[in-house]
Amino acid sequence: MTKRKVKIGFDLDGVILYNPIRTFRFLSKSLKFIKPIIFKQKKEPFYVPKTRLEKFLWFLLHKSSLWIAPGYYDLKRLTEKNLVEAYLVSGRYGCLSNDFHRWSKIFKNDKVFKKIYYNEKSVQPNIYKQSLIDQLKLDYFIEDNWDIIEKINSKTKTKIIWISNLVDFHIDYPYKFLSLKKAVGFIKQLTSSRP
Fold first, then answer.
1. pTM given for the model
2. Lowest mean pLDDT among 72-76, 78-82, 107-111
3. Bridge partners of 161?
4. Which three-class secondary structure state does DSSP give residue 189?
């Protein structure tokens, strides 16, 4: 009898792509009372850029996703051994499509992900991700944004793995790792014990 593959979704920025700026995510939380004034945003929890300038700034911000994170090639080995079925589910908005497609060509050549998705219609990222997580019936989803995890964790059966950082690591959470490499190590252990 062959083992069933573990179905896992991966966020892009801060998970598959190393992004040193995510360590400073706590700054955005400390500014949450100023955000509505600066961005004129009131109802939605995640800001969606609308003007040309905002979209350009969003593009620059995402250029901080510098390179493929350590642990990606460990994941590749798990997919090559047919132990894992991996999906890329990025919350990147439609205004970042060119940069997203540049990265997706690299991933398609590596044949790590069964399918690659991004938030082309620029809906709220927590809603977008939860919808795909449930549609794909994932066993696990790996995310680095604690705000997104808080919003979707109780609304799905999928276990959410958090790529945390040194500043937020004090938050009590059962599936928490400091790097993709450590999270993939956890997944590797799961594959060895799975029926």
1. 0.85
2. 107-111
3. 142
4. helix
Closest CA to 120 of 85, 150, 89, 86: 89
CB distance 158 to 139 below 8 Å: yes
In sequence order, which residues have a C-beta less than 8 Å from that of residue 195 and are 6 or more positions away? 1, 3, 4
pLDDT tens string 115-160: 999 999 999 999 999 999 999 999 999 999 999 999 999 999 999 9
Q: What's the CA gap between 148 and 58, in Å, rounded?
A: 18
CATH code for residues 6-22+64-193? 3.40.50.1000
What radius of gyration, in Å, describes the C-alpha atoms of the chain? 17
Write down the pLDDT at residue 67. Answer: 87
3-state secondary structure of 116: strand
β-bridge pairing 17-18 and 67-68:
antiparallel
| CB contact at 8 A, 112 and 72 | yes
Domain ranges for the chain = 6-22+64-193
